[in-house]
Amino acid sequence: MAEQFTVRSFKSGNSVALRLPKGLGIEAGEELIVVPHADGSMTAWRKALSRESFLRLFGSVSEGFMAQGRGDTDQGDYDWPETPDHPAAA
Hints:
Layout: E1 9-12, E2 15-18, E3 32-36, E4 42-46, H1 50-59
Antiparallel strand pairs: 1-2, 3-4
């Protein structure tokens, strides 16, 4: 299992910030992508590694992936509800 770090949030202007330990190897000013999850957890990674991470996924697909095709992909029509922010399509 990877090493765990406990961090504490603090107020910085009108934002909430995290002080990250030096042991994480993140340089000052380095950009991170943070994705919040429905269960309250978050995932973070270096923005500089986003492209490389995506391209590594391509190579991780097994050789026989989708050899039998996509299967049943038919989807019925969906009646999108109209909201004040998103009027129904014409």
